[in-house]
Amino acid sequence: MSQPADVSPDIANPGGASLSDLVPTGGAVSRDRRATKKPRSLWGNAWRQFRHHKLAMAGLCILVFIFLATFVGNALYPREIDELNFSAINQPPSTTYPFGTDSLGQDILARVLWGGRVSLMVGLLAAFVAISFGTVIGALSGFFGGFVGSLLMRITDMFLSLPQLPLLLVISFLYRDRMYQLFDQRFDDGIGGWLAEKADMDPGNFGVFVLIILVIAILNWMSTARLVRAQFLSLKEKEFVEAARSIGARQGTLMFKHILPNVMSPIIVAATLAVGAAIITESSLSFLGLGFPPDVPTWGQMLYEYRSYLQLAPYQSLIVGFVIFVTVLSINYVGDGLRDALDPRKTS
How far apart are CA 315 and CA 48, in angstroms? Predict the structure, then answer.
């Protein structure tokens, strides 16, 4: 239909604007959407980057499954770790015994599930203590510098020069029985007894548990200290730190409120990798006979027991070794994924 003659072009198109001026173009719409889009946080970007790391996601899924199996599945599994069945000695894996049985007819799967709790807790707590101590040493050294920083770094270098495995063996050999007796005699009641009960151990074994955690942590904090020191030396001269210092912020506030949060990314990655290293160290100590006593079937202790049956029943050692291998490999993949996800240069 034609436009009526009495309607002027100015009324039909006010201001003389063309149709393309009145209707937003695709570029303008996309710019408006980007402008109104909620910005992603640091951890949102990290999770988005982490999900694109296929090996890290696979490792995370396997690790979650292992944690659920050891901490939840152990309580649901029908057999106990000390349940003997002399009619089923050294049986290979079957539908009745998925992981087979050992020389006393004990279900290996039940022992793997129970021992996994201890091995994982040793790894987590030892890594937490080592990372915490290393972070404090590195922060003090990097922030204050001077004589304090040099002294702390020389102590760090001294610990780095120590042979770790021989020292671990010596400390465990000298103090394992003492810690067992100390906790068994003095901490049977009170907080020590309560913690031992929560860990499903007698107080003496809980003393060995504490000793192994401390020994592993004491000899594994140095790399974290050097990492944190380097980050503090770089960040303490930044503008946001100078601005906080100019308005009267105290040294503790500068260290733990302004600088330390910006160092958390490499610390988290180091902590993740330290868990796997601690699990390997505990397994090595137990395999060498200087870890937990025989009545605490950790993964390393089980390898120590099953080494005598490598020819008769090799599946016993292979299954436990494979569980340790998969757990540590999953933790390392998660650590690699976190390293890439928390790296701002790789954030897309």
Answer: 40
Q: Which is nearest to 199 in space by CA: 259, 132, 124?
A: 124
CA distances from 23 to 10, 36, 300 (A): 18, 19, 71
For residue 248, the model assigns a pLDDT of 83
- The domains of the chain are located at 54-346
pTM assigned to the model:
0.78
Planar angle of CA 274, 278, 283, nearest 5 degrees: 155
- Give the span between the Cα atoms of 310 and 321, in whole angstroms: 12
Q: Which CATH number fits domain 54-346: 1.10.1740.10, 3.30.300.10, 3.10.450.50, 1.10.3720.10?
A: 1.10.3720.10
d(CA 8, CA 178): 104
DSSP, collapsed to helix, strand or coil, labels residue 85 as: coil
- Going from the C-alpha of 232 to that of each of 106, 161, 250, the distances in angstroms are 52, 24, 16
Confidence at 11, pLDDT banded by 50, 70, 90: very low
Of residues 292, 325, 320, the one with CA closest to residue 306: 320
Per-residue pLDDT tens over the stretch 215-249: 899 888 999 999 999 988 888 888 888 888 888 88
Q: Which stretches within the chain are classed as H helix? A: 9-12, 19-22, 26-36, 42-51, 54-68, 74-76, 108-144, 146-160, 164-186, 190-198, 203-218, 222-235, 239-246, 251-253, 264-287, 299-306, 314-341
Geometric angle at alpha carbon 116, from 89 and 268, rounded to 5°: 160
